[in-house]
């Protein structure tokens, strides 16, 4: 490996399938096409794509595949690389948004406005009961303000957010942040708008730029 600069950062990326009110989830397209897109454009410096996974838009019922994804990130990579160079990167859609949002935290509350894709509709249920009350928050250790600033400087309409909602996005992010903390890796969730609001090509460019920015800051 030698002295050719910092080691690569390995990303394990997830998106979601359709859900109530969103029949065409942009994050499914982004994550499914990301590897090919990066190959075509030339992989950003210091970026390795470890996996790209599309999750069911479900909470409790999809916890097994979620943990299979999280655990594969550590079992495959920690043996061969510095665990601090592994990032769990989750994309979710906010259908009412007009810009990208870098999520700073998730809270220990599942209050679903509609049933998830497996029919679960919790109201004020703690995601991890042993973590404490509904107001317990877990924060990413990645520098969200610096990430947002770097992406803004590249021309993207992006903000930092402290509220990932109480639906499946927050549910997955909470589990991921807890898993990342326990395993010495990093986690980040990013909300994107619908393709009708920001077109597919711009969103693909944004995803590739995000990987590059994260690799440079990690």
The class by helix and strand makeup works out as alpha/beta
- Largest sheet: spatial strand order: 2-1-3-8-4-7
| Head-to-tail CA distance between termini | 18 Å
Largest sheet entry:
6 strands, mixed
Strand content: 15-25%
Mean pLDDT: 91
| Low-pLDDT residue intervals, each spanning 5 or more residues | none
Q: What overall geometry do the principal axes of the alpha carbons give? A: globular
Count of DSSP E strands? 8
Helix and strand sequence: EHEHEEEEHEHEH
Using only C-alpha atoms, the radius of gyration works out to 16 Å
Instruction: Figure out the total of helices.
Output: 5
Helix content: 25-40%
Could you explain how this protein is built, in words?
The protein has helices at residues 26-41, 63-77, 144-153, 168-183, 200-217; strands at residues 9-16, 47-55, 86-93, 100-103, 105-107, 137-139, 158-161, 186-192. The chain is α/β, with parallel strands linked by helices and 218 residues long. Strand 1, helix 1 and strand 2 form a beta-alpha-beta unit. The chain has a six-stranded mixed beta sheet, sandwiched between helices. The protein has a two-stranded antiparallel ribbon with strand order 5-6. The model has no long low-confidence stretch (mean pLDDT 91). Helix 1 (26-41) packs across helix 5 (200-217). The longest helix has 18 residues, at 200-217. It is built from five helices and eight strands; from the N terminus they run βαβαββββαβαβα.
